[in-house]
């Protein structure tokens, strides 16, 4: 490591009205190091990095870059100093190509005219092993490609300090592996990398040192070799961690949802869901496991009336829902808490506050010409307390909240609808460990009430512990439905790649 740190943050503090985001925060990051920031949602990670990247100005304290005291007044100042911030929600123009996005805002203009600029980009791609087609439009890129483009964009602008804010939230395992390969290459080239993540296994795999934040303060920095996931979790929470899911023993009731021979086509008219059939009972949690892109999203949206059904039937208490509008389906008691790749692209409106986002699903139930906001305001305040949502107030635009707090609002809103059937896809994605287990407890409470829950998750251990049955899908087909009590990671893993239950044993 270098003698002079690439980043040295000393006694930084920042408040937003009554909300204290950071208190006398200290952080040191060296070149050739991958440094993790861990903390619960609202612990101050994003605020700290926004000050490092020039988005916010500290109320007090100092930021040193390569030993020089900096006073950033805007992101451009931070970029000039070599700091590159890569956000959860990509800052890309979808209607432009990769190279147009890279050069956007630069002196050379939007379009490349100088072959030297193209060569510079190609050289950076080769140096850091970034696989990008610079002539490809962003709208045609997968999530992993967009992430690589964001990295390339900041490297092109001269950054040797990179901040990655929850970069793997919506990644498949292979996309995560590719990103880690790039991060290791950047580390070899002497870059300083700050990695924000809630995924403990990733932190333990890729990072050198870990700083734990709690309630706006840096409580401890540890070498990875001296840490364990349990120890780090207890530092984050400030108490002993009980990370266990207690399965609720409840005999499932009658069938509420029956899906028969469901068929859904993608934009190219190819079958993305192929003759899928299953049932869901009252007071049952049916888990869905599958490699990303196996049809989970399309299944959720077909049941909720968002995705057009090409064939088959979806029965709710004997009534076929195919052809019904999403509003009609919600009125029949199906509530969908679907957490997409872009949290703010579906379900919530970024520019609105909590109250208005809750009102989006409440207003149609009210009678008369005027909307009564009082019940929704009370619901928002209750949700802030129950989910420990960190926000200056319930009238604060949600786009300024952390990704985890935005997700809490989305999940909380769906739970507040008192549905017969609750569809939860990646409901804990991007949430800290403590909040994840809060969500699991809430799902169990819904089960006790007799709610039928379709739970799509990524963590096989959670699916086994939480669910009653697990349906495994591969390439849009059901490869088997097993009792969670009899399931194992190995059996489910084999079924996820196309093996039948018998073949997977």
From TrEMBL:
Protein name (database record): ABC transporter
PROSITE patterns in the cross-refs: ABC_TRANSPORTER_1, ABC_TRANSPORTER_2
Localization in the cell: Cell membrane
Pfam family of the protein (one): ABC_tran
Alphabetical UniProt keywords: ATP-binding, Cell membrane, Membrane, Nucleotide-binding, Repeat, Translocase, Transport
GO MF: ATP binding; ATP hydrolysis activity
CDD domains membership: ABC_Carb_Monos_I (cd03216), ABC_Carb_Monos_II (cd03215)
């Amino acid at each position: 490591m270098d003698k002079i740190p690439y980043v040295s943050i000393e006694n930084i503090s920042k408040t937003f009205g009554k909300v204290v985001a950071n208190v006398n925060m200290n952080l040191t990051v060296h070149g050739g190091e991958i440094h993790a920031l861990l903390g619960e949602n609202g612990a101050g990670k994003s605020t700290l990095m926004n000050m490092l990247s020039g988005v916010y100005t500290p109320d007090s304290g100092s930021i040193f870059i390569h030993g020089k005291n900096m006073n950033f007044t805007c992101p451009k100042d931070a970029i000039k100093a070599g700091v590159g911030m890569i956000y959860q929600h990509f800052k890309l123009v979808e209607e432009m190509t990769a190279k147009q996005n890279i050069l956007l805002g630069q002196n050379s203009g939007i379009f490349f005219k100088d072959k030297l600029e193209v060569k510079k980009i190609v050289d950076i791609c080769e140096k850091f092993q970034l696989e990008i087609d610079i002539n490809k439009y962003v709208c045609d890129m997968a999530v992993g490609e967009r992430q690589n483009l964001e990295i390339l964009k900041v490297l092109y602008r001269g950054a040797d300090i990179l901040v990655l804010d929850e970069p793997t939230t919506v990644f498949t395992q292979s996309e995560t592996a590719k990103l880690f390969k790039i991060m290791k290459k950047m580390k070899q080239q002497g870059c300083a990398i700050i990695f924000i993540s809630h995924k403990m296994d990733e932190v333990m795999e890729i990072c050198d040192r870990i700083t734990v934040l709690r309630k706006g303060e840096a409580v401890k920095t540890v070498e990875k070799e001296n840490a364990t996931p349990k120890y780090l979790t207890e530092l984050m929470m400030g108490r002993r961690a009980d990370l266990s899911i207690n399965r609720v023993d409840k005999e499932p009731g009658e069938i509420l949802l029956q899906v028969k021979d469901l068929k859904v086509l993608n934009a190219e008219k190819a079958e993305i869901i192929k003759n899928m059939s299953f049932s869901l009972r009252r007071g049952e949690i049916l888990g869905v496991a599958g490699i990303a892109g196996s049809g989970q999203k399309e299944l959720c949206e077909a049941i909720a009336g968002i995705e057009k059904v090409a064939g088959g039937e979806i029965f709710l208490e004997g009534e076929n829902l195919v052809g019904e509008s999403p509003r009609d389906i919600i009125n029949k008691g199906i509530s969908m808490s679907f957490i997409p790749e872009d949290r703010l692209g579906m379900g919530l409106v970024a520019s609105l506050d909590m109250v208005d986002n809750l009102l989006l699903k409440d207003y149609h139930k009210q009678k008369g010409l005027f909307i009564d906001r009082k019940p929704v305001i009370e619901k928002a305040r209750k949700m802030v307390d129950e989910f420990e949502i960190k926000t200056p107030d319930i009238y604060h635009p949600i786009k300024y909240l952390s990704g985890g707090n935005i997700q809490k609002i989305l999940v909380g809103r769906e739970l507040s609808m008192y549905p017969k059937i609750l569809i939860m896809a990646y409901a804990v994605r991007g949430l800290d460990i403590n909040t994840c287990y809060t969500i699991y407890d809430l799902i169990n409470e819904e089960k006790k009430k007799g709610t039928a829950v379709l739970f799509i998750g990524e963590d096989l251990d959670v699916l086994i512990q939480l669910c009653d049955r697990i349906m495994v899908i591969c390439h849009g087909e059901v490869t088997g439905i097993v009792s969670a009590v009899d399931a194992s990671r190995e059996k489910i893993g084999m079924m996820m790649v196309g093996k039948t239950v018998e073949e997977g044993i």
